[in-house]
Amino acid sequence: MLLRELSEALGVSGHEGAVRELILAAIKDLVDEHHVDALGNLIALKKGSASVSRRAKRTGTPAKVMVAAHMDEVGLMVVFLEREGSLRFRPVGGIDERVLLSKRVLIGDNKVPGVIGVKPIHLLEEKQRNQVMRVQEMSIDIGASSKDEAERLVKLGDYAAFDIPFAELGGPWRAVKGKAFDDRAGCAVLIELLKESYPFDLYAAFTVQEEVGLRGAQVAAYSIAPEIAFVLEGTICDDLPKRRDVSPTTTLGGGPALTVMDRSVVADPRLVDLLVDTAQKEGIPHQFKQPGMGSTDAGAIHLTREGVPSAVVSVPSRYIHSPACVLSRDDLDNTLRLMRATLARIQGLDLNR
Amino acid sequence: MKELIRELTEAFGPSGHEDKVRNLLQARLQGHVDEMRVDPMGSLIAFKRGHPKAGVEAHRIMLAAHMDEIGVIVSHIDDKGFMRFAAVGGVNPIALMGSRVVFADGAVGVIGREHPPSPNEFPIIDKMYIDVGAPDKQHLNRKVGDVAAFCRPFVDMGQRLVAKAMDDRIGCAVLLQAILELESSPHDVFAVFTVQEEVGCRGAMTSAFGVEPDVAIALDVTLTGDTPEAWPMAVALGAGPAIKVKDRGMLAHPGVKNWMVSTAQGLGIPYQFEVLERGSTDAMSIQTSRAGVATGVLSIPSRYTHTPSEMVDLDDVQNTVKLLLGLLSSPISL
């Protein structure tokens, strides 16, 4: 899978071009049609056989299936250039301020390297040690000594993304580390799915701006007008040992995580049942994501037009929305297996009620 | 009508799992409407064709009442078989204390709470659990994602009725009753029993897109200010259907509001105006569907909303049916 390249590509919400080019190169020979819509979503169609499409119309079996994964990642934006050359910034998408200090970033299309400055421990007052530093107080150092110098390298509104190399960690689950597994893991699985043939029309939507409010998916779903949708995600995994017996949200190595309900969607029970049944038949490990947490593109897709029955399948990823995430290649492979096997059974699905 | 209300309120139907309520309504509507369908999200859409009347401009009217109720969803099962849960919709933690919940298969669970460090500590859902009496995790026949509703029988107090899920099965009952009693309307009437209102008025959004109405009325409960030391609100139980002026999610269309007022006055039906400072209804989603819909709300006053004991007044309920029938028979001037 293309995980390394996808993880290292820079694509903060609203600036997904580099990720899109990478994906387009990987899928253009696998699909019948593709286009980039007005917001920047990459939409690809893999046509099914017409006879099945006709039969589907009679039986209530979906003939038009959307599978979506978002290309964007959380990051930063330069909002002010200080007189002495440092850059003030704000988060794009949900970022915990505690993960920012002393991180390396790459700014703008020229990938200007910078570091988020931190005050040495020697100079910290007692009070500061017990406080979270606010993003308003932080700045990026690009080595410039004046505003003029800084302006030659970056400009106001430039995006900054975390500068983190991908690496194999190994271990029993074949762990890897990198940035932006939310949702490049989903993108990687969706690319692989396009290598198969399907009896129905499969629309793959690589969406933009999920992290700032499910915006790309909303318009992609409107133009595709699918009958059902699957969203592929990289999701929260909080499985390190805890003192209390509470939910890990998902567990690394536990297989693809199925959403029943999150803040944005109640997954269609018929699709969830199909996923569970398929996993059981194929012997694919799987788990349920802790209900009530997070939101995904399915939140926008399922409310499109007259409504789209939707489900979410996620690859568990530790430390999402931070510079360094960890996921298991086993989970990634099992997510692909589950999606392949489930899509192969769509013909048996009857959505009439 | 009491039997219908009992049947509807006792049915299981947290947001996203409205099948049982829908089946009940479908069975009652069969043969009384021109067309009936279930949309992709699960909302039930029943259509009654209008009969053109000379001099009356025909409209395409959507009437919406939501089938779903608030509930809880299992989020984690610990080794001893206690289930942690999250809220489905706006669940008040205080209302959960001492409550029982019931799962789709009829299994009943008790809501328990961790011992609070101080007796005055406000209960929060993260520190509660569901106990179905299983000795441990291995003997528990439940999984993460299972959904449960409040478990409480309907009570007929005579003039007043108490049940869980009056919000919004009472709206469903009013809408169903009106459709069954409606002899003829100059307007095309779409009775829509929506899904997933309690998690963000979602079913109304998609069904409104499908129905494409030009006028819409949501039927839902509203809060009252008539109980001891209540939050000030000029709505009282028994004072008639409440005509919504505004809530947190919408401003009622003045034309629709005036149509409601003049119809109520013409028929001598008591009514009250409603300004709701918390919450909203399906009308919020319908109003902004496609190019916009002239939308209002007829509210049935309800005490103790979002608890297992929601109380409504039978006269209010019957007057809402009467007013709705009056509205459907009259011309609309927006």
What features would you describe in this structure?
The complex is a heterodimer of chains A (353) and B (334). Chain A has 353 residues and is α+β, with helices and mostly antiparallel strands. Helix content of chain A is 27%, strand content 24%. In chain A, helix 6 crosses helix 10. Chain A is globular, with a radius of gyration of 21 Å. Chain A starts with a helix and ends in a 10-residue tail after the last helix. With 334 residues, chain B is α+β, with helices and mostly antiparallel strands. Chain B has 2 domains: 2-69 and 154-329, Aminopeptidase; 71-150, Elongation Factor Tu (Ef-tu), domain 3 (Beta Barrel), CATH 2.40.30. In chain B, strand 14, helix 6 and strand 15 form a beta-alpha-beta unit. The longest helix of chain B is centred in the middle third of the chain and has 16 residues, at 166-181. Chain B is globular and about 70 Å long. At the A-B interface, loops of A face strand 4, strand 5 and helix 5 of B.
- What is the CATH architecture descriptor of the largest domain in chain B? 3-Layer(aba) Sandwich
Say which CATH homologous superfamily of the largest domain in chain A is assigned.
Zn peptidases
Q: Find the biggest chain interface.
A: A-B, 26 and 34 residues
Instruction: Give the beta-strand count of chain B.
Output: 17
What is the CATH superfamily of the largest domain in chain B? Zn peptidases
Number of strands of chain A: 17
**Unreliable parts of chain A:** none
Task: Report the structural category of chain B.
Answer: alpha+beta
Helix content of chain B: 25-40%
Q: What is the annotated CATH architecture of the largest domain in chain A?
A: 3-Layer(aba) Sandwich
Biggest sheet details of chain A: 11 strands, mixed
Q: N- to C-terminal separation of chain B?
A: 32 Å
Residue share in helices of chain A?
A: 25-40%
CATH class of the largest domain in chain B: Alpha Beta
